[in-house]
Design brief:
single chain; alpha/beta; 6-stranded parallel β-sheet; 10 helices; 6 strands; 50% helix; globular
Length: 214
């Protein structure tokens, strides 16, 4: 996989390059500030981008803005955004409009190499990957949303869906059958008003349902 990395911390940036290279990926460009990102992405047109949210010069949301701008010019570009803290608005903006091929992880997750690489692979293949801590905070902070109609088990399934896991992994995590998982997911779709005619991104739309009601 050809990747572009944007991270201002030189130590973390080099660590990401080494980690990804050792995993068999090719890092075609690195950026250390917000303004460097879009030109690098447009020049190299990578298979995916790994971007820090806060970058020079303002250390606000330069990475996120660059990611959104890049996806406008390169539709479908997979983007995995890293952040030091949980920011609900970042996850909401990335997934706006039912977007696919996006991820939002806390930087601490990079240290859990297998989890990080798995999340990157899911994003690169058009899936979504939200950090478990982000999902937990979103679910905890919700008040009076349509998700209140979900059973505890359906909420657990939705949480794992939001993290980007497939039915097999969800079944293994919850120690239930894949048939049970499919049934719970069907109930989630039904309760959130996502009928069978909604094809392609119903899992993402289900995640958006609580992002928009957090």
């Amino acid at each position: 996989m050809r990747l572009v990395i944007a991270e201002d911390n030189a130590l973390l940036r080099e660590g990401l390059v080494m980690l990804l290279t050792s995993a068999g990926h090719e890092v075609v460009a690195v950026a250390g500030s917000g303004p460097e990102i879009l030109p690098a992405l447009l020049t190299h047109r990578p298979d995916a981008a790994v971007l820090d949210v806060r970058l020079p010069p303002g250390f606000r949301d330069e990475g996120l803005r660059a990611a959104l701008a890049a996806r406008e010019q390169l539709p479908g570009l997979p983007v995995l955004v890293l952040s030091q803290y949980v920011e609900q608005s970042y996850a909401g903006e990335l997934l706006g409009g039912g977007a696919s091929g996006v991820g939002y992880l806390l930087k601490d997750r990079v240290g859990r190499v297998d989890e990080f690489l798995d999340a990157l692979d899911r994003v690169a293949t058009g899936g979504t990957a939200l950090d478990p801590e982000v999902v937990t905070e979103l679910l905890t902070n919700r008040r009076d949303s349509p998700l209140d109609s979900l059973t505890p088990r359906e909420r657990e399934v939705l949480k794992l869906m939001a993290e980007g896991h497939d039915n097999t992994t969800i079944a293994s995590t919850l120690v239930v059958t894949e048939r049970s998982v499919s049934k719970h997911i069907g109930n989630v779709f039904l309760k959130l008003g996502l009928p069978p005619s909604d094809s392609g991104h119903r899992r993402v739309l289900a995640v958006l349902a609580y992002l928009n009601n957090a």
